Amino acid sequence: MPEAVPDFDLAVIGSGGGAFAAAIRATNLGKRVVMVERGTVGGTCVNTGCVPSKALLAAAEARHTALDSGRFPGITTTAKPVDMGGLIGGKRSLVENMRSDKYVDLIGEYGWELRQGNAVFAGTAAEPVLEVTATDGTRETIHAAHYLVATGSTPWAPPIEGLNGVNYLTSTTAMELDEVPESLLVIGGGYVALEQAQLFARLGSKVTMLVRSRLASQEEPEASRALMGVFADEGIRVLRRATVSSVTTDGDGGIVAQAAIAGGQEEIRAAKLLVAAGRRPVTDGLNLDGVGVKTGDKGEILVDDTLVSSNGRIWAAGDVTGHPEFVYVAASHGTLMVENAFNNAGREVDYRHLPRVTFTGPTLAAVGMTDKQARDAGILCECRVLPLEYVPRALVNRETRGFIKIVAEAGTGRIMGITAVAKEAGDIAAAGVYILQAGMTVDQVANLWSPYLTMAEGLKITAQSFNTDVSRLSCCAS
Predict the structure, then answer these.
(1) pLDDT tens readout for residues 417-456
(2) By three-state DSSP, how is residue 53 classified?
(3) pTM value?
(4) CATH number of 163-277: 3.50.50.60, 3.40.50.720, 3.30.930.10, 1.20.210.10?
(5) What percent of the chain lies above the pLDDT cut of 70?
(6) Residue 453 contacts residue 393 (beta carbons within 8 Å)
(7) How far is CA 266 from the centre of its chain?
(8) Which letter does DSSP use for residue 3 in this model?
(9) Following DSSP, what letter does each residue of 431-442 receive, concatenated?
(10) CA-CA distance, 68 to 230, in Å (whole number)?
(11) 239 near 266, Cβ under 8 Å?
């Protein structure tokens, strides 16, 4: 019996960054593409992740700058309480405009088809199909040459006694509050917890964080110490080595948490609770097992370095793979998957020089290996940590909380990793990508041109510190 001709070359489940990158590349190759979305077009980044969170963080930073203006002699400003309704309304307007301009409108421009509904795999491993139930209840069977699962991830809550009985917040629902909580308890110490804790503190909440190990535990310990100092300065209480045993609601509707902290017990009360303990891939209900797609312990689709799953016609991209949770990773995945599926490119993902940014103020950003990662890989390394007091841009900003760290291979001086806690640290990490990609050494970076009074100049000064006492350099003649 002849094999059925597929309805589409590519069927995409999801409509976030990875899904759109794949659909755009595939249509540019002349492929027939259909996209299935059961919720709001645009995925996490534009709707509930990067765009709304960074918009609110920027607003909170503006308020904080007004309140912190006293660090500049002769400047005095104040800030009124936040109109949370107005702030959230502005955020929604921004999201709606970007969703329309950068997602919905592009579907028509590129010409792929969109189905609003729920997709489930059916058929067999040899001949998988998608059964799509539309929002109006109608059903359709889609047969494609290749399938891409780009369903993203969702906030995850740990198994804490009583948690399901309280109205706790996630990173999604926290950005829909109609008023600033008087107090906020945050469970978690990763990038989402860090950003949300500082966001609400700067909007006027009294914030307490319960952290299992340390802040930003996957990054350099210097980053954790720097952020601990920043958060203390801004009134955020951080309780480390904390494990929450139970959560209840008090008579006034507030939250009461019982926690073991550094060997003792403590009761913490707050008006609201935010659980920011990580995210999990969205794969429930897809019937992946029925078409021979293997998943991991957290539900992630197991893929090889080319992003194909255990079924050669089904691919995955973005958070659903369990890979680093950045929208630029998802977008790169989407393009790579199409090249491999239709052009037999054989491309593989490579995270060696992946930049990572946490949008605190000052920002935490890094690229490449940490000191520990280099040592664990058997690399004999040499490190330098430059306090921001040696970076002229930080001095004129009157913001010297932070540092720049370079990890270099001993002997060769080849730079293996860069970490910074500083204003515009994300740009430092971006420059670091090119440094690492080129295999540059500390001596090369120390002798490069660098514009004066930029934060990126700190990279050159940190490189110079491997062989020079930078405290004896002229600020304008480094």
Answers:
(1) 999 999 999 999 999 999 999 999 999 999 999 999 999 9
(2) helix
(3) 0.95
(4) 3.50.50.60
(5) 99
(6) yes
(7) 31
(8) P
(9) HHHHHHHTT-BH
(10) 13
(11) yes
